[in-house]
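Hey team,

Filing this mostly as a record. A colleague (T.K.) asked me to run one chain through the structure pipeline before their review meeting, and I want the input and output archived in the tracker in case anyone asks later how it was produced. No errors, nothing strange. Just documentation.

Input sequence:
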Amino acid sequence: MEKFKVTFYPDNKTIEVEKDKTILTAAISCGVYINSACGGDGVCGKCKVKVKNGKVITQPNAVLSLDEKREHIYLACLTTIHSDLEVEVPAQSRLDFEKSPLYSQSEEIESTIATVEERLEYSPLVRKIYLELSKPSPEDNISDLERLYQAILSVSDSNFNKDTKFNFLQTGLANIKQLGELLRDSDWKITVTLGVRNGATEIIMIEPGDTSGRNFGFCFDIGTTTISGQLIDLESKRVLGTKASYNKQATFGSDVITRIIYAQAEGGLEELHKAVIDTMDQMIRELIEENKVDLNDVTALLCAGNTTMMHLLLGIDPTYIRRQPYVPTANFVPTLRAAEAGININPRGLLFCLPGISSYVGGDTTAGVLSSGLNTEKDLCLLIDIGTNGEIVLGNDEFLIACAASAGPAFEGSGVGCGMRASHGAIQKVKIEQKDFKIIYTTIAGTKPRGICGSGYIDIIAEMLRLGILDKDGKIKPVEHRRFRETETGREFIIAFQEEADSIGDIVISEADIENLKRAKAAIYAATSILLRWMNFNFSQIKKIFIAGGFGTYLNAENAVRIGLLPDVERSRLIFIGNSALAGARQSFLSYGAMKEAQDIAHKMTYMDLSLENEYMDEYMAALFFPHTDLNKFPSVKI
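Output structure:
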């Protein structure tokens, strides 16, 4: 098979690939990450590249303007290689995977300590205990292993001892083989690392001397779009560092269905598994280097994520999640060695996974309920997690019921022309002045705008509605002004001109973008409405509505209500809790009681399948207007 060299700029990376491979395939193999929200189906138009030299063949269904074709711009997923190539990947088509924090680290530390100490007893899932064993003698001649067990059982460490009860101790052959020599060389002074594992207390490792002060772990929220992680000192309860990065699986598609389909292709599952592990390993390396932690002292990690993400993390085939009757391989994953999943920490370190509920409501929702405290509330409460999928939980301390809405990735920056994730350069807040349509915006990190993230889109639509330049059905009104323009596909409104932006063109919102965002908000609102109706409740009976999700930090509640994403209730009832999945994962890691509570939540929660509810589509269609076809539902919104 004939092969050609492909060089990508500005990365200056070169790879040799077989003839007829796509530019996107070559980029993935070369470690150049191009935005391909549709997973290579050629429908999202995100993977535009410029071919500077060489011969390519592109499929006729590639949707490009005449100007783009003249500039030798192609869709990487639909363009095959037929000679040596030089390819430029513009900034707007790149997935940079930068690790920009999504929330304040100091706030996270404070909330961690307050929650665990006030509500749940501190008892981490992995603990180090220093022991000074009595030396054997003719009168005390029990075996070394029995001596070790007796010393552990006699420890007065009430927190760990009380929760786990040490009702069953176990260890592996490797520990037993080295035990005799290690005890004598260390003068019977050792540190044992104990972990809660599937109903038993496992001796993970035995070290000479006192290393009890060096015990660290990671908790992760494995999101479809973003992976967030924290390094935790398991002895002091302190969060040492927080990172958030794009999930490198985004190269293979922006939503779980696209990735499930990709996993079915030859080698697809392994590629998706490797992508998430690479993302986590990079975050682990950076956090331990920044905090001068030895990787061997990282004894465990705990992960929360939606059901598909957890399957891909563990390399489990997710095929049957999207096939009737939509049954996952596992909701409750037993505690494993992290090495079994390919994650690089201490070779004997443990991997804990928070339990999920169904194919489309996973452990991240369990974590959200735990961290919000919804399951302990006497009053009726809602949790709405706005992401690539929208998960909604209704309940209190008596019952929990959940559903999932296929909102799509619009609020995560995919499926919209200038959309991007909440990272450096994303327009996050927008105000439009009526006089001359002057636009005041802020970007994440204060850099030049590169695109618009979910909270920015919500502000833009709300402002356009407020000014009367957007109809209730999402059509931009014709206005004679330089910010408005007609295109082949409909009208556009310019948010930032190219000269002020870090992009290959103007940053705009189009009628097609508004349509996608309208569908996403309608899916979430309709799911919430149907869940309440199914249980014979209404919004007036809800005391608290917890709003979770990565962009909750920047979300304007008034604007979210104005467009019909959130219900029109007293704003004091809308409580923004940010990344509730990561918070719940951290709490479960630091408290065995919290982990048990998470398991109880997952067992207790009922799943409502919206695809079986005939009224859902009616409610969805009614919500396909701003804010809704029934304005009585939004009395405070004036349009």
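Quick notes for T.K.: Residues 98-114 have pLDDT under 50 and may be disordered. The longest strand covers residues 189-197.
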